[in-house]
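Our consortium's second objective concerns turning raw sequence data into structural hypotheses that experimental partners can test. To show how far this objective has progressed, the report includes one record in full. It was chosen at random from the queue rather than selected for favorable results. The single chain below, 114 residues long, was entered without modification.
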Amino acid sequence: MVVTVRNEEREPREARVEELVGRRLCDSEGRKIGRIEELVAEIDGTEWMVVEIHVGPGALVERIVDLSSLLPWMSALGKRLHQRYIIQWRDVDFSDPDHPRTFVRRSDLKRLTD
């Protein structure tokens, strides 16, 4: 799947989702945050625009739980392991798609625990 991604400083461009998911994401100081597990996109006219990414093992569990909502034990597992970072797309530098980085420090990122 191809989505159009936009960063406030750059022109919109296309990116293949399968090339982004699974990439390790580092913060502005080079520290590892986790792997990109989920991309959240919204429709803008006729195109999908990525607005945020979910990073870390909790984001992977989120994706698995969403896909397996018919299995009650998966929901229980998801609640225990649902810690993840939510990062706004505008805060991620994909100029080197093999080594994405945030523009912010890990300690300043929003971490969710359900």
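The partners drew two points from this record. Helices lie at 17-20, 57-67, 72-80. The chain has one domain: 2-55+85-112. Both points have been shared with the crystallography group to help prioritize constructs.
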